[in-house]
Structure formats: C-alpha cells, structure tokens
Amino acid sequence: MKKLFEKHNNWFFRAGFVITAFMLLMILIGQFWTPYEPSAMDASAKGLAPSLSHLFGTDKFGRDIFSRVMEGAGSTLLIAFFVVLIGASAGVLIGAVTGYCGGIVDEILMRICDGITAFPSVMLALIIIAVLGPGKWNVIWVLAILFIPSFARVVRTEFSRIKKQNYISLAKLQGVGPLRIIIRHMLPNAFPVLLPAISIGFNNAVLAEASMSFLGVGVSVNEVSLGRMLNDSQNYILRGLPWYALFVGLTIALLILGFSLLGEGLQKNNEG
Amino acid sequence: MNFILKKLTTMIITLLVLSFLSFAAFEMVGDPVATILGTNATPEAAAELRAELGLDRPLPVRYGSWLVDFFRGDWGESYIYHIPVRDMIHEKFVITVTLTLMGFFLAVLMAIPIGLYSARREGQWIDRAITVLSQILMAIPPFFVAILLTIFFGLLLKIFTPGTFVSYQDNLGKFVGYMIFPAISIALPRIAMTVKMLRTTVLGEMQKDYIRTAYSRGHSRQTALKQHAFKNGLLPVITFLAANMAEMLAGCIVIEQIFSVPGIGRLLMTSISSRDIPTVEAIVMILALWVMIVHFIGELLNDAVDPRLHG
Amino acid sequence: MAETVQKNKILEVRNVSTSYTIRHSALGGKKLQHVLHDVSFDLYEGEALGLVGESGSGKTTLARAILGFLPSYEGTITHYSKRPQVIFQDPYTALNPARTVGWILEEPLRVYGKYDGAERKRRIIDMLEQVGLSEEYLNRRPSELSGGQRQRVSIAAALIVRPRFIVADEPVSALDVTIQAQILQLLADMREKFGLSYLFISHDLNVVYQLCDRVIVMRKGVIVEEGGIDTIFAAPQHPYTRELVEASDNPKIL
User: Fold this and answer.
1) ipTM of the complex in this document
2) Testing the interface with A: which of B147, B252, B302 to mutate, by most A Cβ within 10 A?
3) Please, what are the domains in chain B?
4) Cβ of residue A15 closer than 8 Å to a chain C Cβ
5) Which pLDDT band holds residue B311 (cuts at 50, 70, 90)?
6) CATH number of the domain residue A136 falls in
7) Distance of CA B191 to the CA centre of its chain
8) Chain A residue with minimum CA distance to B250
9) What is the DSSP string of chain A?
10) I need a labelling partner for C126 at 20 to 30 A (CA). Which of A68, B63, B71, C174 fits?
11) A98-126 b/e (C-beta count within 10 Å ≥ 16 → b)
C-alpha cells in the first residue's frame, strides 16, 4: 500500500483514494450496522428534514434515508463489483488471446468490439433489460457483457506491444508454452494499464446501474439500489421534499467521483 | 478512402445486426395479439389478427419486410394508440434532437472560451481552479446535475416550473426556455471534459516548433495563442464533442425523465413498458442510425484532423 | 581453422533467402526486396563465428531465422544441437520488467521440469556467481540494475539451460566501453568453461576480433567474404571488407 502511494504521487490518486476509501468504509459499516432498520417505517417521523437523529431525513413512510442509502450503496457497489469482475475477466481473456495471436481472429473480434462500443452502453443495456425484464442479475450480466470490449481493447493493445519485447522471444526460445507466456510473462506487465481501466469500469458500472434503475429498467421493484432510490425520490422533489433525491444523488456522485479520480491518478502514472 | 469504406461497412453491418437482434428479441417477448385484443379473445379472432399483422410468416421474412418498409418511411402502426408510428415519433424526435444539439452548442460555446482562458493563465490560481473544478464536474452524472438544477432553480429560485413543458409547435420561445436546464444538465460534464482536453491540446500546440517560430518573429504569447494554437485546437474540440454526441443522446433518455420532457427517450420507456413493439423497434432503429451517423462524422473529422492515425 | 574436417558441425545454413514485397503506391506496383540472398555457411562445435555487416545488411534477419523467429524463408537451416539460446543487444528489453532476477533465471528450469525447488535454487545461485553477480541480486528487478548487470543476467538466463550454441546479437553495442570489455571477457570465459559455440553478430570488427575465430562479412543480404579472423584483418579481399577494416580505428593485429 505504501508502495502504491509512492508510485502514484499525484493529487488525483490521493483525492480519489480518500473519497473511495471513505465510501467503501461507509458501505462496509452499512453491511453490519445502520442507524435505523432500513425498511422500518415510523408513522411519527414521515417526511422529516435532515436532522441529527435522521442525517438525511426520512421518506414518506418514515424510513431513515441515511440507513437506506447505506444499504442501497452496498447493493449498487456489489452490482458494480460483479460487472467489473465478469467484464474484466472476459475482457482480459479476449484481449490477451487476440493481442498475442493477432491475425484474422483479432480483426473480427475487434470489429465486433468497435460495433458494440459505438453505442452508449446504457442505451443498449436498457433495450436488453426491456426484453429480459428487470432484476439485479440481469443488470449484472448485461452490463458485464457490454463492458467486455473496453477491457479487451486496453489489454489487446498492451499485449500486442509486449509481444514484441525481447523477453517474450527469449521465453519462447526457452520452451515456455503460449498459455504460460500469456499468464505468467505478459499479464503482470499489463497490470499498469489494467488498474485504471478497472477503476473507470467501476465508475461506469455505478453510473449505468443508477441510470437504468432510475429509468425503471434496472433492479426489480423490490430490490434496493441507489438508482432504484433515485427513482423513488423523484416524486419527492416536486412535493417540496428535495433532500431524498439530493442525498441519493450526492452518494452516487461521490462514488463515481472517487473511482474516476482514482482511475485518472493511476493513468497519470503510466504516462510518466 | 479505404479507411472510410471500411468504417462505412462496419457501420452498416453493425446496424443490420443490431436491428435484427432487437427485432427478433422484441418479437419473442411480447405477443402483440394479446396486447391488442386482451387475454380473453377468441382463438379465431386471434388467428385473424395474426394473419392481418403478418405474424404468421417466419421471422427473417418479417424482418426483411420490416426493414424495407422502414427505409421506405413506413414504420408501422402503434399497437396501443393505433396511429402510424411515424406520426407519433416525429414530434418527439425533433424535441430530443433539439435537446442534444442545444447541449452540443452549449458545450462548444462554454468550453472554448473557458479552455482557452485556462490555457492562457497556465499555472495561475484561476487555471488551477478551473482544472480542479472541471475534474470534479467531469465525474458528476448528468442526472445529479438535473436534480440540483431542479431543486435550485425550480424549487428555491422558482425560475422555471418543472413539469410545464411546452412543445415547439405551440410556443417556440417557451419551448427553448424550458429546454435550457435539461440542456445544461447534459452539457455540463461535456463542458468539463472539453475544457480539460482543449487546455491540454492548446498547451501542447504551444510547445510545437511553428509556435516557437511565431514567438521569435516577435508575436506576443497572446497573438500566438490566438492565431495558431486556437485554430489547431478548435477542430479537435469539435471532433471530440461529435464523438460524444452518442453519449449525450443516451444522457437525454435519463434527463427527459427528470424534467418530464416528452422526447423520444420518454416515448421509448413508455412503449417498452406497454409492449408497443412497432414503436420500440422504430425508436431503436432511429437511435442506432443516429449513433452510427454521429460516430461516422466523428471518425471522418478525426481522420481529417490527423490522417496519420490510419497510415 | 575452418579447414579442420574432423570437427562436428553444430549449425548448417544452406541457400537461405528471404524477401518482402514493398508497395510503391496504393494502386499496386509491388517490388520484391531481398533481405537475405542465398546465404550458406557452417558453424562448428566450440567455434566462435563473427557475423559482421552494417545495419540493414540482413544479419539480424539471419539471426532471427536461425533462432526460429522468422515465419518463412527459403533454404534450410539445420541444428545439430538442441535449441540455441540468445543474448540480445538491448539489455533493457531482454528482461521481463515485472519479474525478479531470481524468477527470470528460474523460469526456464521450471519449464524444463526435471529439478526440484532446492536444485533450481542451487543452479540459479551458481549461475549468478559464474556471471559475476551474487545471491543478493535474486530479488532485484531489472529496473534496479545497471546496463552491464542486466547483460550479465541475460547471459546467465541464456546459459542456465546449458545450451551448446549461443546466438549473440550485438550483445555489447549498447554498453559503455569499459563495460563492453568486461562483458566480452565474460563471454570468452563462459565459452571456455562450457565449451560453447557462438554466432556473434556485430557491426564492429574490433569487437568481433576480441572474441571470434572466424568471420563472415555480409552486405545487402549476401556473404561477401568469409575467413579466419587474422586473415581477414591482414588481407581483406573484398573492397567492402577493406572498408570495414580501415574503419576499425584500432586494428589490433598481432
């Protein structure tokens, strides 16, 4: 960890790290403890403004918004985590193979990636979810698949560069097999470009989940997530209770800001 | 030339594949007969309607005829409203395109002066403030901007009333007035990105030889900035924003929802939930076409700016 | 020396040619450009053969063909030993930057698969000492080493699988003169100790003179002259060789 800080000595990385660490800590705490039971209704505390007892106020059922945000953020982050995990794993696999092999397979796969990335992923995702129906795992799979090209492209570019290095020729000459070359010799050298891509992936996944659930084509009605809450909170804005939307939006914005600064900071280091 | 042809082919193939997939998918989920007749229709009536809608033919045939009809301008009839989809979409499309273009021009008009100013004041506190601010704004999702604008200008300052959209056909002035805040929501993150990009480009240009030559000929830094760096920085900005038009369009779908703007995004969402398949298919195709065309223009501009990229 | 018939061949190169097509315009007009043209020579056991030529003479392409990195060529290349190993010119790209020296040296042994962990470790440390480095370098990364140290690690990595034949592609030309001398000495020592054969590629006749018994001079993909090192220096036949000999500002003729 100390090494990571020495290596990434820029304010983007530091600010991103602080924000992300804070958000992750709050989410982690929220898994074990929240000020109130997130779904507990309190008839005597409906639609309260933010106060010391209810930091973010309460909704029309008297539920504590701060507790709900903690819970919802955890759910959103979990979705983002699986999206990035699946998308990055598949992307690394495809990018590594195409970057290492080149040729016609590479050409075809990259054309497909071009085609997919031409479309905003939120737009494609909401069309697919419209067909599949809402739900947490539907959102995860759709976004993960749509995120594959961005990871594949980054890894492919890096692999086709690394492939030409002498140490790879040397490894071939020493009789190291292709699979071992890809995994043990090349992959560790691709990490510097993979890390910012993963950070930006989290950024995009949180944004996509929030947008989709907000539009009602994300997680299903009885599941929790920040986007889902944003959808709920929309009705409150015009009724003069704006803080619900404000705090949910702020939470999403901070999560995204943290990941984007972190990604920027990691990238800055690669540029030297 | 070769490059353009290649891009064009990719574009057309992508469009065909995407439209076929979405066509097939939507045909599979919703049974339009049930949508139109309700669940307690007689089997005879259902079969008759099926034949009337052409649903008894195999899928590729239906897709083929749908595609031909689409490009002829016949987009079918809404299952719900029983009016031609084309008539239904027309107004909404104009609204959404206006919103996107307003966002685009807003971004150009705001980003260029700010970016240039920031570059001119390089290293001074104002430049740093702009850099930090744009880095933060870049990461703020459009819908959050929209919420803030609604709360601040709608609820607190009461400059506009959310939900009082007026169509351009009724009152153009009020229409544009209402669209300003949605446009700002879409434009703000783009402005931030563009400012950052422009600043980097201009400062990069300043390092180049011909600018140094301009200096040595006695031009001041200001003149050098204006005459050379500006010209060479402007094109990349427009290219960048053109490439961003697709993302802006996607942003519109969300923004329309928040500001209750009855654009194509809102129609798409309601058509999806009511399983109005002809409308959904037409909108998907239009969005895809729009994205592809915008992308293609972006690529062409990019190629014009830096042909080296393609050997 | 080359005339000693009794010696065993370790490499036989026969009529090797390669070419590529250059396109003059987008419309066509292709032209065949030869990189190597009908190259033939032999390399004997224990011999150090110098391959000299200016850049663009095809010597690196020839090395790549011998190492098996060239996808296609005409003619035949026959190895009479197991796979040759290579030492590259640029020590900065020859070592995996993400790995430690110990890992880099252990990898070929791991792949070989016949030694257990302790035996591998023993061999690595032994090899490090052979090339003039010590055990403490095991956990260093290439970025923490100097150019000369990196080249020592490269040599160790090439030798650890106990090859009989080494291709050295300009192994010292990226180094300072003093380091050059040290690395050349190391190569000479290793040759003696392990009975190695070298194909030593260089643009610098002086460097070749210090290590090699025999020299092949290449120009534009063709071998223009071949002979014992002293013969070449004393009486160059081809005008190009003469040029090279004169250009070597310090001909150390005995």
Assistant:
1) 0.82
2) B147
3) 88-266+292-310 (1.10.3720.10)
4) no
5) very low
6) 1.10.3720.10
7) 15
8) A123
9) -HHHHHH--SHHHHHHHHHHHHHHHHHHHHHH--SS-TT---GGGTTPPP-SSSTT-B-TT--BHHHHHHHHHHHHHHHHHHHHHHHHHHHHHHHHHHHHH-HHHHHHHHHHHHHHHHS-HHHHHHHHHHHH---HHHHHHHHHHHHHHHHHHHHHHHHHHHTTSHHHHHHHHTT--HHHIIIIIIHHHHHHHHHHHHHHHHHHHHHHHHHHHHTTSSS-TTS--HHHHHHHHHHHHTTT-THHHHHHHHHHHHHHHHHHHHHHHHHHHHH-
10) C174
11) bbbeeeeebeebbebbbbbbbbbbbbbbb
At B84, the amino acid letter reads P
Amino acid identity at B115: G
Question: Could you give the angle at which helices B85-120 and B264-273 cross, rounded to 10 degrees?
Answer: 130
Residue C246 scores a pLDDT above 90: no
On whether the pTM is more than 0.80, the answer is yes
pLDDT at B183 over 90: yes
User: Cα(A43)–Cα(C236) distance, rounded to whole angstroms?
Assistant: 105
Q: What is the pLDDT of residue B205?
A: 72
Bridge pairing between strands C222-228 and C214-219? antiparallel
Answer yes or no: is pLDDT of A82 > 90: yes
Q: Predicted confidence band at C124 (pLDDT cuts at 50, 70, 90)?
A: very high
**Averaged pLDDT, B233-238:** 70
Q: In chain A, which among 202-221 make CB contacts under 8 A with chain C? A: none
- Rounded to the nearest angstrom, the gap between the alpha carbon of residue B71 and the centroid of all alpha carbons in its chain is 21
Range of the domain at A194: 21-29+89-271
- Please name the member of A115, A211, A214 whose beta carbon is closest to the beta carbon of B14: A115
Mean pLDDT of B150-177: 82
Q: Distance between CA atoms of B21 and B51, rounded to whole angstroms?
A: 23
Touching subunits of A (3+ CB pairs, under 8 Å) are B, C
**Cβ-defined contact of A189 to C95 (cutoff 8 Å):** no
The tally of domains found in chain A comes to 1
pLDDT in tens, A24-38: 999 999 888 888 888
- pLDDT for B208 equals 67
* Domain presence at residue A67: no
